[in-house]
Amino acid sequence: SVEQAIAVLGVLSPDFVEREGLVFWVPNAQDYIVENYSLIGLKSDGGKLLKSASPKDVERYRNNLSVSQFFTTWEDAPDKPVFKVGLSKEDYEMCYVFAEELARHWQGALANHFPDKSFEFEVGDDLLDEYGVCLTFWQVSDHSPFASGT
User: Fold this and answer.
1) Which residue would you say has higher pLDDT here, 36 or 137?
2) Terminal C-alpha separation, the chain
3) I need a surface site. Which of 57, 115, 124, 136 has the fewest CB within 10 A?
4) b/e 46-84 (16+ beta carbons within 10 angstroms → b)
């Protein structure tokens, strides 16, 4: 549908905002209201989620997108058995493909917007407080001994 096409275009045309050195993906930068977004994130500690103010945890939490939930609103395939998060097994697996492609697309967009910053992406199941196939990213320091792979 037109609505679905516009939603996908919106995800493929990311807006980013920078706040206090942190970078966030937002659906529409013009609608970003600072007061609505605290600089508190989540981190996992042995399966338990804890609040965190570390830059990585804040960005990882605030940039978390449930790709599966993005598509479940359109899933209407009664002949396919539900596998997870309202999707069939095949569609769930395709969410991984979409998430990996989206990560590559966002990496290029981030490089254009923030050429002096580096980012790491994560695609996985049930990241933090989201369900299904998720995609998130955060900044990594180029000065870290791990950033160069050494």
Assistant:
1) 137
2) 48
3) 115
4) eeeeeebeebbbbbbbbbbbbbbbbbbeeeeeeeeeeeb
